[in-house]
């Protein structure tokens, strides 16, 4: 869990993390919003289904892959929040042809 | 498409300093930055966070000054939020991705100032939620003002461990415990490396930081070995040889290594750095690589810190202006004199730091078979050792055996560990095991983005 410090950085941008409303400072990344929201995991791995949260926060590890505004597999740590942004977890391997 | 004299990748200290020097010499400069604001990692988000009392120091003063100068510079085209995913090494046509849309740029010369990444620290349990890089926590503090809630454990070694400890304590986090893995004594490192007098300014800064950390209540445990992160679904405890403590957030750090993903993908010559235990591109005194139109500056060419990055960025821009015929070699050399003096002062302490904070063999090649080393494909140390016994001679072969390096991170997190594991198993050096050769695209991109580029060409 992460605690915000409104005295240093007021939380002014409202986003949706897994359906939950969270306010974070302007300039924060989608990955930061996930950590501030206290999500237990942002994704589960395609191989073993293990829970993961952002690890490097600088675009290296790809553990923060998330569905952002409907686009899957985005590096949440490399996306700056915008008002109303929808950040959703990814669970396991993607089904290539849903319903097939 | 307008061609620039010099395209710079990365707007950290090296990239910003190179841009400033370049436009001062009359070059047209394009700066491509994956971040949405200049600063790099060290001065990340400084325009928004310089007033945060937890981040006071060089970040607030020097970082602000450099970013302001960069923003004010005439003749620099700054493209934030832009990822480089391919370079045509014959034409220097650059393939980019911005806002999910592919685009291109051209330049006469290319300067890669792509910085560093944290050295992977593959301990048992490091994939658990709640375990992060120490640098990651610092980025969170800089970009969002946020700090971990609950007990924080910083495990590893290096100046950043002390800096982040102080910054987190200033910001009201805690309790904070530092589990230091350093094996070498300060006296031994000092005797072997020297440079303490020439590097005294940095040394005094470091000592002041350590004093502040202790005054703010940092608990320090020395000579820690056998680190493990434990927990169900997230990290709950950190164990080492002598103890086990509760932990809400575990921050790992064993120093940083050059980001060589792009330089390796371009097929530039690289050298194994035996002092820093990492690969770095082979460079001359101006940052020139084995490709006559591509140079490297900053930590991407070898770890030196932000002041070294500024100096090497400026030197690379001087050389670019010379090679483009804007100044002659004598003028380049004359202008380089103060830059080289600054570089000399900034690197003085580095051999001491490299010696003191040399990573343990266990960090490079974890001994427990079930430790995950490839986070993407969830491949363990034991699987890599088995592949080595079956005949994998290096990380490029291991990729075919195990998919290590074929996940989304493209080997950024596992490449060095896989090479070290194979080297240990086969009784060869890490240098002999070799280094992963990544391929373009340097970062994954969608077919849709590629298709958008083709439409442009036929229009």
Automatic annotation (TrEMBL), chain A:
<dbReference type="InterPro" id="IPR042204">
    <property type="entry name" value="2Fe-2S-bd_N"/>
</dbReference>
<dbReference type="GO" id="GO:0051536">
    <property type="term" value="F:iron-sulfur cluster binding"/>
</dbReference>
<dbReference type="GO" id="GO:0016491">
    <property type="term" value="F:oxidoreductase activity"/>
</dbReference>
<protein>
    <submittedName>
        <fullName>Sarcosine oxidase subunit alpha</fullName>
    </submittedName>
</protein>
<dbReference type="InterPro" id="IPR036010">
    <property type="entry name" value="2Fe-2S_ferredoxin-like_sf"/>
</dbReference>
<dbReference type="Pfam" id="PF13510">
    <property type="entry name" value="Fer2_4"/>
</dbReference>
<keyword id="KW-0560">Oxidoreductase</keyword>
Automatic annotation (TrEMBL), chain B:
<protein>
    <submittedName>
        <fullName>Pyridine nucleotide-disulfide oxidoreductase</fullName>
    </submittedName>
</protein>
<feature type="domain" description="BFD-like [2Fe-2S]-binding">
    <location>
        <begin position="372"/>
        <end position="423"/>
    </location>
</feature>
<dbReference type="Pfam" id="PF04324">
    <property type="entry name" value="Fer2_BFD"/>
</dbReference>
<dbReference type="InterPro" id="IPR036188">
    <property type="entry name" value="FAD/NAD-bd_sf"/>
</dbReference>
<dbReference type="GO" id="GO:0016491">
    <property type="term" value="F:oxidoreductase activity"/>
</dbReference>
<dbReference type="InterPro" id="IPR007419">
    <property type="entry name" value="BFD-like_2Fe2S-bd_dom"/>
</dbReference>
<dbReference type="Pfam" id="PF07992">
    <property type="entry name" value="Pyr_redox_2"/>
</dbReference>
<keyword id="KW-0560">Oxidoreductase</keyword>
<dbReference type="InterPro" id="IPR041854">
    <property type="entry name" value="BFD-like_2Fe2S-bd_dom_sf"/>
</dbReference>
<dbReference type="InterPro" id="IPR023753">
    <property type="entry name" value="FAD/NAD-binding_dom"/>
</dbReference>
<dbReference type="InterPro" id="IPR051691">
    <property type="entry name" value="Metab_Enz_Cyan_OpOx_G3PDH"/>
</dbReference>
<feature type="domain" description="FAD/NAD(P)-binding">
    <location>
        <begin position="5"/>
        <end position="313"/>
    </location>
</feature>
<dbReference type="InterPro" id="IPR017224">
    <property type="entry name" value="Opine_Oxase_asu/HCN_bsu"/>
</dbReference>
């Amino acid at each position: 869990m992460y605690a915000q410090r409104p005295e240093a950085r007021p939380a002014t941008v409202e986003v949706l993390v897994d359906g939950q409303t969270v306010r974070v400072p302007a300039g924060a990344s989608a990955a930061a919003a996930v950590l501030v929201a206290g999500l237990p995991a942002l994704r589960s791995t395609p191989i073993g289904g293990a829970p993961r949260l952002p690890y490097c926060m600088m675009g290296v590890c790809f553990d923060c892959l998330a569905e952002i505004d409907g686009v899957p597999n985005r590096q949440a740590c490399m996306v700056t929040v915008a008002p109303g942004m929808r950040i959703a977890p990814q669970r396991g391997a993607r089904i290539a042809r849903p319903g097939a | 498409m307008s061609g620039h004299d010099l395209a710079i990748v990365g707007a950290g200290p090296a990239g910003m300093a190179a841009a400033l020097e370049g436009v001062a010499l009359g070059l047209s400069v394009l700066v491509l930055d994956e971040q949405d604001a200049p600063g790099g990692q060290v001065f990340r988000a400084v325009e928004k966070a310089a007033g945060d009392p937890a981040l006071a120091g060089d970040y607030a003063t020097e970082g602000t000054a450099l970013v302001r100068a960069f923003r004010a510079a005439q003749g620099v085209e700054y493209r934030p939020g832009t990822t480089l995913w391919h370079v045509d090494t014959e034409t220097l046509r650059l393939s980019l991705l911005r806002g999910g849309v592919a685009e291109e740029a051209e330049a006469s010369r290319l300067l890669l100032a792509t910085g560093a990444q944290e050295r992977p620290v593959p301990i048992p349990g490091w994939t658990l939620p709640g375990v992060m890089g120490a640098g990651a926590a610092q980025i969170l503090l800089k970009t969002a003002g946020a700090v971990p809630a609950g007990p924080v454990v910083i495990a590893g070694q290096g100046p950043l461990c002390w800096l982040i400890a102080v910054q987190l304590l200033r910001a009201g986090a805690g309790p904070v415990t530092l589990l230091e893995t350093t094996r070498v004594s300060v006296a031994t490192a000092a005797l072997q490396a020297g440079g303490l007098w020439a590097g005294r300014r940095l040394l005094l800064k470091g000592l002041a930081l350590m004093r502040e950390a202790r005054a703010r209540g940092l608990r320090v445990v020395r000579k820690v070995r056998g680190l493990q992160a434990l927990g169900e679904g997230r990290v709950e405890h950190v164990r080492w040889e002598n103890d086990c403590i509760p932990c809400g957030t575990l921050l790992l750090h064993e120093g940083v290594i050059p980001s060589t993903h792009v330089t390796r993908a371009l097929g530039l010559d690289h050298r194994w750095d035996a002092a820093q235990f990492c690969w770095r591109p082979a460079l001359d005194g101006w940052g020139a690589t084995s490709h006559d139109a591509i140079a490297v500056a900053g930590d991407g060419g070898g770890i030196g810190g932000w002041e070294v990055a500024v100096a090497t960025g400026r030197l690379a821009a001087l050389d670019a202006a010379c090679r483009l015929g804007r100044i002659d070699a004598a003028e380049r050399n004359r202008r380089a004199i103060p830059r080289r003096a600054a570089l000399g002062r900034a690197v003085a302490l580095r051999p001491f730091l490299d010696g003191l904070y040399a990573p343990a063999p266990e960090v490079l090649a974890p001994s427990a078979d079930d430790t995950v080393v490839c986070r993407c494909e969830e491949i363990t140390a034991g699987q890599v050792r088995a592949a080595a016994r079956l005949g994998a001679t290096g990380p490029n072969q291991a990729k075919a055996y195990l998919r290590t390096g074929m996940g989304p991170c493209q080997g950024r997190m596992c490449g060095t560990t896989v090479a070290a594991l194979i080297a240990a198993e086969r009784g060869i050096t890490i240098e002999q095991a070799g280094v992963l050769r990544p391929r373009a695209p340097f970062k994954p991109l969608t077919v849709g983005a590629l298709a958008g580029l083709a439409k442009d060409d036929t229009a």
